[in-house]
Amino acid sequence: MQKKKKLNRYTVISVISLIVFFVGWELIVRLGLVDPGKLSAPSSVIELFIEKLSSEYPDGATIQANTWASLRIVLEGFAMACIIGIPLGLLMGFFEGAERFFRPIFEMLRPIPTLAWVPIVLLIFGIGDSGKVCIIFIGSMVSLTINTWTGIRGTKKVLLNVAQVGGASRAQMFFRVGIPSAIPMIFTGLRISLGIAFATLVAAEMVAATIGLGYMMNQGRKLMDTDLIFLGVVVIGIIGFLINYVMSILERNIAPWSTEEPK
Q1: Class level of CATH domain 67-258
Q2: What DSSP state is assigned to residue 173?
Q3: What is the pTM of this model?
């Protein structure tokens, strides 16, 4: 009961903070504290959003078409990253041989900015969707693998020792101790990877695309239409907020111990 009240209080505070943010943003523009040509008011962005639900002007697609085009590519690349990155991170964290083999590769890939792969991948795959999916896969997979590896490496030795004394096999220790201990870091990796995925996609769509939120924002830049640019920013922010909310719900249900505060 107390936990539910705390969750409701957190939700109310979150909603209030968003209202304060957007009202403050609106007032800054309406009071002339900044040039409306450089910073669009939220009300103007909302008006454009409603208009873009049925209009393809000026970028050639409705907001739904642009959003789905970007979201589909993100989900494809991210799904591939999860399928490879999470199991690989678990293997690296639990099996010393796998860590010795793969760690140098990821230590080399870790400092490379994801955007650095954009020209290389686009040169190989062209401006089609496959190139953008590949870029998102690379950026997300590296982050997800490293976070999963870090999470399972952080498994408390005492838990492993207790399991070993209790007669647990290597496989049982991996599935019943290692993986549950790594879940919080895996979810952290999922959130970070999704952020990287959207940032990379927008940059790639600005360079090579004919549809998508990044392409729409780039058209706004060319036309000096700040409302169109901020529409893309707000839509991406809302998608990110919703995804993070879903992630939080999944984490609370899959690994409730990871969100409990220590007593």
Answers
A1: mainly alpha
A2: H
A3: 0.84
